Amino acid sequence: MKRSVRRLAVAAGSAALAVGSLAAPAQASSPGSDCPAGYACGWSGLNATGSMLKTKVSMATLGTWDNRIRSYYNRTSGVACWFDGASYSGSFFAEPRGNGVTMYDSSLDRKISSIKLVRNERDCDDTPYVEWYSDQASKAAGFGDLNGDRRADLLSRDRSGRLWFVSGTRAGTLIGAGWNVMTALTRHGDLNGDGREDLLARDTTGKLWFYPGNGYGKFGARHLIGAGWNTMTTISAVGDVTADGRGDLVARDTAGTLWLYPGTGHGAFAARKKIDTGWKSVSATTGPGDLNGDGHPDLLARELGKLWFYPGTGKGGFAARRLIGAGWNVMSSFISVGDVNADGHNDLMAATQDGFDNPYAGDSANELRLYAGNGKGWFAPGQIYDQDWYDLNGGF
Ligand SMILES: [Ca+2]
Ligand SMILES: [Ca+2]
Ligand SMILES: [Ca+2]
Ligand SMILES: [Ca+2]
């Protein structure tokens, strides 16, 4: 339901733009230019004509403007949600930040009764993080669980850069804002020896940061691991692939070389070692833990849409790969958080593309899927966990 409203919003915006460009040449100012920056505006007439209501705060009721608005324009830095019910109820039309000119949607013509101004489209009527749940495992997977309740957790980043801890019990907690400066986020168990899962993040300048987990889904003061990580196209915490009891990191550089960064167990990494070359076409890697039951963490890599299984040798390398399947280019996030369905086998979670940004992604867009591991290196067919993976900037 929410999805169809979103797609309608896109179509209506495009139509309004086309009409505006045809009518524009004879006019000194474009329709809606009387709406000041920072405001959402509504007009009593079509195409930003008649009298104008402007607001920079949400309005649960519209007073004399109730059921009068015929066209509208969002000039806030966020999203404006136009509802046909008071107090942000009923149907709504989400207009993205800085998008479009005056708009007219016949289904809401003279029906708008409240206006909600928010940071992200999800905030119109949904949680800012995706719906997430996991079953409680009988034994700890050793990774994927940030708060120690034996349920796999998610880190969900919304489009405006807020990072949320989403526990296996569906509860979401804000970690903080500003995470859009991070171009890679990865986690896989404890890296500094306190038994709590930690987080690694690379920023736009190429610095790699260590965020110690506090065991409750948040993180303590970060410390710098090093600079120069912008040469890496994929960075994945993979668990203990060297069998020394310390979690490790695997990264692929722009030349296509795959590197091992052995963990020291103190939130740092020792001198890197070359694992392999020829990984230039690999667009994603993820550390799913041990998938084939030999006790050594394995690696998954996507190359030209194919997903490959690389069995860990326990010596910091990987044995001959095996094809899992094709068609994985629809994925925008691979999430390796252990045993999500509590059957004792590590699983893979994956999210497809956002249908809003990728209209050609088709019916597979906006899905969060479970690929249940069978403990022998294979997955069951994908199972849809949620269909509201939209307006997000990754899951980790
Ligand atoms: Ca948990
Ligand atoms: Ca830790
Ligand atoms: Ca293995
Ligand atoms: Ca499982």
Automatic annotation (TrEMBL):
The protein's UniProt keywords, in alphabetical order, are: Signal
* KW Signal (keyword) present: yes
| Residue spans crossing the bilayer | none
The residue range of the signal peptide is 1-23
Gene3D superfamilies, alphabetized? Integrin alpha, N-terminal
Q: What is this protein called?
A: Repeat domain-containing protein
The scientific name of the source species is: Actinacidiphila rubida
